[in-house]
Amino acid sequence: MANNTGLIVGVVVVAGAIGLYWNTQRDTTPVGLVVANNLTSTESLGANTDGDVISYQLVEGTFREDESSVGVASVSADEPLLVILSNGEPVSAKVVKIEEWTHDENNPEYADEMERIDALNAYLDRIISLMNEVGMPPEAIEEVENSKQTEEDMRAESIFGPTLSLQSHFVW
Description:
Strand 3 and strand 4 form a beta hairpin. The chain has a domain at 103-162. The longest helix has 31 residues, at 138-168. It has helices at residues 2-24, 98-101, 113-133, 138-168, and strands spanning 32-38, 43-47, 53-64, 72-73, 81-86, 89-95. It is elongated, with a radius of gyration of 27 Å. By secondary structure, it is α+β, with helices and mostly antiparallel strands. Strands 1, 2, 3, 4, 5 and 6 form a 6-stranded antiparallel sheet that branches. It is built from 4 helices and 6 strands.
């Protein structure tokens, strides 16, 4: 009888330990968006094909879509959450690097105008990719692509502008 009691106590202790371990490993991230720090203001992308106004924001915090989904948390201010908002309500989030999602025209790190234009084009490429992900209409995406081409035209003008200007205005 003593052997059975020891066996039963052992099984109960092991089962309790497994239950306690399982309970501590549960995802306790609250459903929805919990913001610890707003890093940028909300940037609007416009209305998608369903008519919802889509915007994005960089925040430090956590996001969990529903009870059955996995929570996402920002790592730091350098790796925040990119939160996608539909009509002001969060619908998804992912961890990104902040330097990829912010663009400062007057950043002193840019050695010249070409480097500034390259950084702007890379930023616009990420915006276009995001617009494709959230279902923005082709006209809105094309508008951003056209602004990117304008920047490329500016590059050509900055390279060839003085040369062409001198050639076309030269008096023989």
